[in-house]
Amino acid sequence: MGENFHICYGKHPRARTTRIPLHPTTARLYSFIEYSHFPNSWYPVIKLTVLVILLILAAAAGCTPQPGLAQPETLTVSAAASLTEAFSEIGALFESANPQVKVTFNFAGSQELAQQIIQGAAVDVFASANQKQMDVVLNELKLGSTAASVFASNRLVVIYPVNNTAGLKTLEDLAKPGLKLVLAGPEVPVGQYSLDFLDLAEKSGNFPAGCQQAVLANIVSYEQNVRAVLTKVALDEADAGIVYATDVGKATGQIGILEIPPELNVIAIYPILALPGSQQTARGQEFIEFVLSPAGQQVLEKYGFSPAE
């Protein structure tokens, strides 16, 4: 319990008085100063000095975490750009189930995220759009491949602007002379998957000889992530591009789709890892378990992802 102590400025009966609640020990200290036999000229200075000290201590006490009051935890998740919507919703659900946790996302190309991690970025969970970039991190941390869990899969589609000025009707049309094709760079998971698809198409015997080289000759730019490919095509800055099936919903009404048959398609796998040595390794593992749970898998399915194969 505190005591209300009256601090008076000046000797006049009507001098300004300030009423301050003080801790009993502090009040006794102030009383000691009040009734000690100091020279009269000292009292204003001493009392003002004590008042300032008390105010500073009170302010500091107000900023000190109170015992028993849980402090918020921040969980940092670096995830492939194609996971943006699905993981944002999963993160919100995880926060609802764990009110003391705040999930912060960093969405980008998997190759960019992997480089950030090996260069020392503070990351608790890494979700990649392919095994290759996950292996980069696993090798750097000297971990075995079993340290990461595959939680989802995806597939490729060819997209074109809704006006379809290039007149795309079949996959073979990607080899049309002068067609402007955009892909993600080969270092980006979807970019390598796209090149793998073209290789499979060439070897299948269902496409004219030299089709692969003709398609490659039509590439006008390599983008840093799948969303950049989607954006360029949706804005009619290219005649065609290759993205994940889960991306097409972000450009509804702006793009058309050419499906790639299963025998030629490349299945993208998504591994996830709780980074050992981070400040939230245990919490990161809980997040992964939530992603793998029926609730997490339902969200992924909602956004077009398939279960891990």
Explain how this protein is built.
It is a single chain. This protein is of the alpha/beta class. The protein folds into three domains: about 5-65, no CATH class; about 75-155 and about 270-300, D-Maltodextrin-Binding Protein, domain 2, CATH 3.40.190; about 155-260, Periplasmic binding protein-like II (D-Maltodextrin-Binding Protein, domain 2, 3-Layer(aba) Sandwich). It is built from ten helices and twelve strands. The protein has helices at about 25-35, 45-65, 85-95, 110-120, 130-140, 190-205, 210-215, 225-235, 280-290, 295-300, and strands at about 5-10, 15-20, 75-80, 100-110, 125, 150-155, 155-160, 180-185, 220-225, 240-245, 255-260, 270-275. Strand 3, helix 3 and strand 4 form a beta-alpha-beta unit. The N and C termini lie far apart (about 65 Å). The model is unreliable at about 10-15 (pLDDT under 50).
Q: Biggest sheet, open or closed, and with what strands and sense? A: 5 strands, mixed
The CATH level-2 architecture of the largest domain is identified as 3-Layer(aba) Sandwich
Give the total of beta strands. Answer: 12
Helix-strand makeup class = alpha/beta
Q: What general form does the structure show?
A: elongated
Task: Report strand %.
Answer: 15-25%
* CATH fold-level topology of the largest domain: D-Maltodextrin-Binding Protein, domain 2
Number of domains: 3
CATH class of the largest domain: Alpha Beta
Task: Count helical runs.
Answer: 10
Provide the helix percentage: 25-40%
Order of helices and strands: EEHHEHEHEHEEEHHEHEEEHH
First-last Cα distance: 64 Å
Rg over C-alpha atoms, rounded to the nearest angstrom = 32 Å
| Residue windows where pLDDT falls under 50 for at least 5 positions | 9-16
- Can you list the strand order of the major beta sheet? 4-3-5-12-6
Name the CATH superfamily classification of the largest domain: Periplasmic binding protein-like II
